[in-house]
Amino acid sequence: MTIQEIPAGMLGDFPRHPDGEGSVQVQLDPDIRIDTAKVFAVYGKGGIGKSTTSSNLSVAFSKLGKRVLQIGCDPKHDSTFTLTKCLVPTVIDILESVDFHAEELRPSDYVYEGYNGVMCVEAGGPPAGTGCGGYVVGQTVKLLKQHHLLEDTDVVVFDVLGDVVCGGFAAPLQHAERALIVTANDFDSIFAMNRIAAAIQAKAKHYGVRIGGVIANRSVNTDEIDRFNGAVGLKRLAHLPDLDVIRRSRLKKSTLFEMDDADGLEHAKSEYLRLAQMLWDGVEPLDAQPMRDRDIFDFLGFD
């Protein structure tokens, strides 16, 4: 029996298997793979702007003529609302409505078309304190494969919950080709980035995922990000300043590509388009060497 066949509430009885050094993590069905698209997983500290980044990056890919699917991996299911203009039902909610008889579902039950043709799925998650996020991600990819939706997709963007890197919410790394880390030019964001990089490197020992690079977000400067990147072997791919138009775009349930002209808007859109083209063309994998917690504390501390 594979984890995809088990309702979320029964996961506590499932025998877990080791995955990586010193960890016990979710094992996804090895036959459920995404082979027909470029797959990116977006991570970062909670509240850093991953959903904003993911949605605008998805639109940028679509502006390049690519067929894009964005998968939100957060129980809040708010990853795609700037694309769809609403909070769409989650895969786990839809599965519960049919008592987990996935064969009764149609693509239109859980896949929604957003701005500029970006297809949107909210995997969702189990209720707080129960179940496992890895189960939900596995079920979502399984459904997409069963309905042949991935065959018509060029790019898949996983937008992943906060900086949680347990076996469940690290599950997108088992599907991704490149992991992207969103950060700001401050201690907390860079500290989280270091731990996320360590988790990705652990997964890279067993899966094809590699760190693609860092996206600086909500930051006037990038000096601390760049200093840290230089020390551990990471690379900044893009820089999105702290612009008021980005804040307003969330309030308007819109991507930046739908906003009226505002200070810094054209630069931000151009940066997303440049990033999308760079990722499509391919970025070199980064063999980062994350710091120990105490070392990064000293590295980023005051003189």
Automatic annotation (TrEMBL):
Molecular function as annotated in GO: 4 iron, 4 sulfur cluster binding; ATP binding; metal ion binding; oxidoreductase activity, acting on iron-sulfur proteins as donors; oxidoreductase activity, acting on the CH-CH group of donors, iron-sulfur protein as acceptor
HAMAP family recorded: ChlL_BchL (MF_00355)
Start and end residues of each stretch annotated as Disordered: 1-22
Assembly, per entry: Homodimer. Protochlorophyllide reductase is composed of three subunits; BchL, BchN and BchB.
This protein's encoding gene: bchL
Sequence similarity: Belongs to the NifH/BchL/ChlL family.
Binding positions ([4Fe-4S] cluster): C132, C166
Cofactor note text: Binds 1 [4Fe-4S] cluster per dimer.
E.C. number(s) listed in UniProt: 1.3.7.7
Residues binding ATP: G47, I48, G49, K50, S51, T52, K76, N217, R218, P241, D242, L243
One of the Pfam families matching this protein, by short name: Fer4_NifH
UniProt name for this protein: Light-independent protochlorophyllide reductase iron-sulfur ATP-binding protein
PANTHER family in the cross-refs: LIGHT-INDEPENDENT PROTOCHLOROPHYLLIDE REDUCTASE IRON-SULFUR ATP-BINDING PROTEIN
